[in-house]
Specification:
With 255 residues, this protein is α+β, with helices and mostly antiparallel strands. Helix content is 35%, strand content 28%. It is built from 5 helices and 11 strands; from the N terminus they run H-H-H-E-E-E-E-H-E-E-E-E-E-H-E-E. The strands form 2 sheets. The protein has a 9-stranded antiparallel β-sheet. A two-stranded parallel sheet has the order 1-5. Helix 2 runs antiparallel to helix 3. The longest helix is centred in the first third of the chain and has 24 residues. It is globular. The protein starts with 5 loop residues before the first helix and ends with a strand.
Length: 255
Amino acid sequence: MAHLSATSSRASWRSAPALKKRGPSPRQWLGHAVSTLPILALGAAAWLALSKNSERRRSGARVAVAALGLGLARWQWARWFVEQSNYTVEFRIGSFEVRRYTPSARAETIVEGLPWKAALNEGFRRIAAYTVGRSQHEANERIAMTAPVTATVGPREIATRTVTFTMPRSRLLSSLPTPKDNRVRLRYVPARRVAALRFHGRYGNDLPAKKRDELLARVRLAGFHALGEVTFAGYDPPSTLPWLRRNEVLVDLAR
């Protein structure tokens, strides 16, 4: 797949079908609220702790513990508070699902000749620089984070991989700022049918490759035909405990 320049990317936006503009998702509003509550609670706890009344001081201690617990939950379950790719489930057998995804806009980059973990980190670094405004032409605006971050897996440890962020549904494709880094491009992705296999654990080892093989076997067993490469989807940051992480491998299906 050839890299596209900023100019050719802009041309592809104009030829793509328009995406419907939406406001911030409920997950985003919830994320803002849950991020603010621990700060407010700690402030209230500090005020109560300064009281001469012993019962108020004890209440302050309870509020502080609750605030810390809420902050910990916000940290470990960060994926619940960001917008996620929009899909409906056709059917499910255990951890295996067949889904229908709605159209979306993506920022993606191609990473060549690196091992799995290094390729994932490099691709993430490039696109994160775009979403926080460091590698945009003129705009320098922040684009809200979404989940999951995806990367093609492939059968080999060292391979060419495509790393992708899905853009928020509130942003029209044509309104997104032009990437300054010509290794990053914006792309319209039409509606599609996808097979998914969910799992937990660390994604910096060979587990995604093993799950890739399992997914393809499940697809064949279910009587479907896979199209293109298998993609790993990570919904959580590396700081999330491995057994709490939501990971998936995905592959498009023939209609």
